[in-house]
Specification:
Layout (H helix, E strand, L loop, with lengths): L4 E7 L2 H12 L6 E7 L13 E7 L1 H16 L7 E8 L2 E7 L3 H5 L4 H17 L5 E6 L2 H23 L3 E3 L5 H10 L6 E6 L6 E6 L4 H11 L3
Parallel strand pairs: 5-6
Antiparallel strand pairs: 1-3, 2-3, 4-5, 7-9, 8-9
Helix pairs in contact: 2-4, 5-6
Length: 227
């Protein structure tokens, strides 16, 4: 897996560098790898002394642990028995699954609580990494239920376009993963185009009937799809 953060640190010795690094980052020895660039030298009577140089790569294990601790410290205020499991899907995406009796309180109305927690978790992890990462939190089977509901919303919007002769339909604001689902479902309907507008957390999808100006809308769709 591609590293998320690489550091080059100098110090009096390799041992000192690693000790200070572990203390400052609150990291375990198995959560990083290091390469000695220069062992350093005390010189002769202090003359020609050189600092040691070490290159350190932080492994995904560190980010998984820190993210799990971060989310656990929040959800325990809702239910101390909620279980949190975190796994890196790839270098840029971390999946957190939470299970327990109290997840309904975390999800909140229309998933707003879950969205807020996901937003905070993403900010937290990005502050630890040099690479932009995304955190996806799934509580129980919430996402699967939302997927089924969103498919129904898309079908209803398509029917509205057909029956009422409406040129476009604006859906309610959705999370980014929900908007991506809308765009995916709409690939089965070549007579319409879709794009997202607005600013988070009020960003929403617009579905339009394809017409003679479709080329313009298509460019717009390419700009805003999956966002």
């Amino acid at each position: 897996m591609k590293h998320l953060k690489k550091l080059t640190i100098t110090g009096k010795s390799v041992e000192e560098i690693l000790t200070v690094f572990e203390e400052d980052f609150e990291i375990n020895s198995n959560e990083y790898e290091y390469t000695i660039i220069d062992k350093g030298s005390v010189g002769f009577l202090g003359i020609f002394a050189r600092d040691a140089v070490v290159e350190i790569v932080i492994k995904k294990d560190f980010y998984e642990r820190k993210l799990q601790e971060f989310i656990s410290n929040i959800v325990k205020h809702f239910d101390k028995d909620i279980n949190v499991q975190v796994q890196a899907k790839n270098p840029r995406v971390f999946i957190a699954k939470i299970e327990g009796e109290g997840i309904g309180k975390i999800i909140g109305k229309h998933g707003k609580g879950l969205g807020a927690l996901q937003h905070l978790a993403t900010i937290f992890l990005n502050r630890l990494s040099d690479t932009k990462v995304t955190v996806i939190i799934d509580a129980g089977d919430y996402r699967e239920k939302r997927k089924i509901l969103i498919e129904k919303i898309v079908k209803n919007a398509i029917e509205k376009l057909k029956e009422n002769g409406t040129k476009k339909v604006e859906l309610d604001p959705m999370f980014s993963f929900e908007r991506r689902l809308v765009h995916e479902f709409l690939k089965n309907y070549p007579d319409v185009i879709s794009y997202s507008v607005g600013i988070e957390p009020y960003r929403y999808v617009v579905i339009e009937r394809r017409d003679k100006d479709a080329s313009l809308k298509t460019r717009k769709s390419r700009t805003y799809n999956h966002r």
